[in-house]
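Duplicate of #3305? Posting structure anyway:
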């Protein structure tokens, strides 16, 4: 609805960004879960410290990971000229 309201008809760009966002969110959730489990079991770190480490790792990885996923998803959603 927002696409029609703002007259943004570049639906391929919107789909590409939404797809990249969903993939990055899933990957970061997996990284966070793995880091928390690793910190808790191997290093014996308590939950707040593990959550802090997870937050820092997610913040550091989100930008580069988003750019790579958008570059990979872009050609799949936006085919070249016909």
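Output from current build:
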């Amino acid at each position: 609805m927002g696409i029609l309201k703002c007259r943004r008809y570049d639906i391929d760009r919107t789909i590409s960004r939404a797809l990249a966002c969903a993939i990055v969110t899933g990957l970061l959730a997996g990284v966070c879960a793995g880091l928390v489990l690793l910190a808790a079991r191997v290093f014996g770190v308590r939950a707040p410290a593990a959550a802090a480490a997870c937050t820092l790792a997610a913040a550091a990885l989100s930008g580069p990971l988003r750019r790579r996923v958008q570059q990979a998803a872009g050609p799949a959603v936006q085919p070249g000229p016909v």
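Confirmed duplicate; merging threads. Residues 11-41 form the longest helix (31 residues). The chain is about 80% helix and 0% strand.
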